[in-house]
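I hope you will forgive my troubling you with a question about protein structure. I am sending you one protein, given as its amino acid sequence and as whole-number tokens for its backbone shapes. Thank you for your consideration; the sequence and its tokens are set out here:
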Amino acid sequence: MRKVVFANEEYYHIYNRGVDKREVFLDDADYVRFLKDLRDFNDDLIREERLRRQNVAKSELNSESELSSDKRLVEIIAYCLNPNHYHLILKQVSKKGIEKFMHKISTGYTNYFNKKYERSGALFQGRFKSVHIDSDEYLLYLSAYVNRNNFIHGYSSAKDEWQYCSILDYLGKRKGTLCKKGIIINQFNDGEYKNFLDKNSEHLKEKKDLARYYLE
């Protein structure tokens, strides 16, 4: 039974990884597909109506959905996709929104992946994991963790170039966004959020590297 109870207007850290720590994104097309799912599955419409809307949609991959707010399940605050796992910061805006949204994401992407790579069975390690973000300080701290997650995990030495992450949106390097970043970025003056990212992500990476060293 899930311990976290999701409530509207509250923020949550959502994450999961591949079963047996396997990679769940094998090429650029896989990352793009997952991002497309984040956009297209964020609604409470019946399947037939959603598919009809998808067929006539002209929006770019990273553009926000044109759905009215009463149909949206969640607001995506930040995200990062890494080879074998993902992190999301979500705000629930519809009853059971996060559960519905993540069920669609997990089912839809697993079906896509299994068909493409001719496999069967579960792709992710059980149900998605969730943590309630119960303070503004925690929300800001997690935004640094998620936006720099690719760097923190050592997948890249470039802090702000990973295109399958919302870091590019927060630093104004990409037009259009999946994210409602105002709750984070509006708390900083120009350039301050970059400094906040630098300070906290370096600290988080150092902690992770030290933990790995002790385990070895």
